[in-house]
Structure formats: C-alpha cells, structure tokens
Design brief:
The chain is an alpha+beta fold and 170 residues long. It has a domain at 58-168. It is 15% helix and 25% strand. The chain has 3 helices and 8 strands, in the order αββαββββαββ. It has helices at residues 11-23, 61-69, 133-136; strands at 48-51, 54-57, 82-86, 96-100, 107-114, 125-129, 150-155, 158-163. A 6-stranded mixed β-sheet has the order 6-3-5-4-7-8, with no helix packed on it. The chain has a two-stranded antiparallel sheet with strand order 1-2. The longest helix is centred in the first third of the chain and has 13 residues, at 11-23. It is globular and about 30 Å long. It starts with 10 loop residues before the first helix and ends in a 7-residue tail after the last strand. The relative contact order is 0.16.
C-alpha cells in the first residue's frame, strides 16, 4: 500500500506506482527481483556490497566525503578490478599521485605512482587488483571513488585533488 503522496507528484506518476505495486510488478524490469525477496547484503573494507550475488561498489564514508567536498559523483571501483601501479611504488615515497582515466578492459582507470616523476616507459605501470591497496597503502583508499577525470597528489600534511578533463581523452 502506498502512503500519502506529496502534492507535487503528478497523478499519472502515482497511478503507475500504484498499478505496479498492486500487480506485484517491478516497474517493468523483467529480470528484477521483487522487493519482498530477502536480500543478501554484506560489505567489505572497500565499501563494496553484495546484492543478490552481484557486486555493487558502494563508497565508504571517507570516499563519499572526498567526493562531496569536490562536488564529484562517487564512482568507487570494484575491489576485483585492476588498476595500474608503478613498479617502484612505495607508500613511504612521497608524493603519492593518482589519476583516473575512463575504465576499459577490466581496469578501473586508476594509475598510481609515488615520487616526483611519471615515466612514459611502456612498463612503468603493472596491474594490481584494487583490494590489495587496502593493506599496502590504506591512506589512498579514500580517493578511489573519484570518477574518471580526477587526480590527486598527497604528501605528509599535503593534499591536492583536482579535475583534469584531458584524462577523459585517451
């Protein structure tokens, strides 16, 4: 049963909602599960959630805060997706840099390196599953929900986050 409908919602919209609710339909999505079905919801350290056996990344509170502070819509990577990390990466070397291209071919678009220089050598980056960063460099996890086109640079007591539209043209 539908509760009181706010006055700014059209009768047509409320009629559709009532029709779907009364018929037990799920808004016309044939493969949707009914709301009454028990949901399996669990989370992991990266903020990922399991709904009906399907991984749906959810930003952590810290990730959401970083995105809100920069007016970016959170887009956390799947923990099993791969990012590029420099062969010489060390969380002890600063600054730590990250940039995100659009995802492709099982990668989430993130490229992470430490130090001042970004090499153009073809083997500078190696693939790494995102969940491994939770142990090796937890301080950068809060930046990984930034969507494609964003960059970050962090060092001791310093943080810079900015949008770089050129990252979308790859």
């Amino acid at each position: 049963m539908i509760g009181k409908i706010p006055s700014n919602v059209s009768q047509e919209a409320t009629g559709d909602a009532a029709r779907f609710a009364s018929q037990g339909e799920s808004a016309g999505y044939e493969n949707s599960k009914p709301i009454s079905e028990p949901r399996r919801l669990s989370s992991n350290l990266l903020g990922g959630a399991q709904y009906w056996g399907r991984r749906m990344p959810v930003p952590t509170i810290e990730q959401d805060k970083v995105c809100r502070n920069h007016r970016a819509i959170p887009d956390p990577p799947d923990p099993m997706s791969k990012l590029g990390i420099s062969r010489t990466f060390s969380s002890q070397v600063t600054p730590i840099n990250g940039l995100r291209h659009p995802p492709e071919k099982g990668t989430n678009g993130w490229y992470i390196w430490s130090g001042e220089e970004l090499s153009d050598a073809h083997d500078f980056f190696v693939p790494l599953h995102t969940f491994h960063l939770e142990e090796s460099c937890p301080e950068i996890m809060k930046y990984l929900a930034l969507p494609p086109g964003w960059r970050f640079l962090i060092a001791s007591g310093y943080e810079d986050i900015w949008y770089d539209e050129s990252l979308l043209d790859v």
